[in-house]
Amino acid sequence: MKQRTVMLACSVLFACVLSQPIEGYLKLTEQIANRTVPLHWSQGPVRYFVFDRGVPGVTPSQLQAAVQRSFGVWQEVPTASIAFQFAGFTSSAPGTEDGASTLGFLDRPDLQGVLGATGFLIDEVTGEILESDVFFNSRFSWSVAAAGEAGTFDVESVAVHEIGHLLGLGHSGLGEVEVRTAASRVVAAEAVMFPIAFSPGTIDGRRLKADDIAGVSDLYPDADLRGRTGSIQGRVRQSGRGVLGAHVVAFNPRTGSLIAGFALNAQGEFGIAGLEPGLHILRVEPIDDGNVNSFFDQPPVVDVNFKAAYFGNFVIAPRGGSTSSFDIQVQPK
Amino acid sequence: MSNRRDIPSWSLVVGVFALFWGLLIPTIGSAQPRSGTVRPPLVEIGGGLDWVGVSDLGTPDATMTRNEPGTPTRFTFFKVDGQIPTAVSLKTWVGVNVSPTWGIEGGFQYSRPTIRATISGDAEGVESSAVSVGSFSQYLTEANFILHANAGRFDQQQTVPFLLAGAGYLRQRDPEKVQTETGRIYQVGFGFKWVAGISRSRRARGPGMRLDLRYVVRDGGFDFHENARRSFVTAGLTALMAF
Question: Global pTM?
Answer without folding.
Answer: 0.84
